Amino acid sequence: MIRTLAVFVSALACAGAHAAVLNESNLATADAQKLAAAAVAACRAQGYSVSASVVDRAGLLKAFLRDDNAGPHTIEASRAKAYTSASAKAPTLAMMENAQKNPGAANLTDIPGYLLLGGGVPVKAGDKVIGAIGVAGAPGGHLDAQCADKALADHAALLR
To answer: Would you put residue 27 in left (φ > 0), alpha (ψ -120 to 50) or beta?
Structure first.
């Protein structure tokens, strides 16, 4: 009995020593709206009507904008690309290319909510992913990704 109690107290002490409050950076709604608008504007400048979704670090929608004439399928596609990018902390174009080349990564498409098409780009503050942009509707995922990248480049000061 004493030995069991000693093990319990020791385990409890170790658990308490490792507990800590996490401090995490998050993407503000106003900044998410600016990024969505910038991504849509970047694609519009190229002649593409798209939708743009911006999600927070947990993949939850913070901002959304659908350009005039963007197809209805672009709504969910942009959100899924943003979710995938935030969840994996990686650009979806790179994930898609990796899955095509690596049979072991092909099962990423089986993860509920994942969409392995170009156009999802992580939003970072320093080296920490605090969200992601998903763009859908340009004639190719690489073009969607370019619009997301331009939005991030144009608003880099927001993410310092």
So the answer is: beta
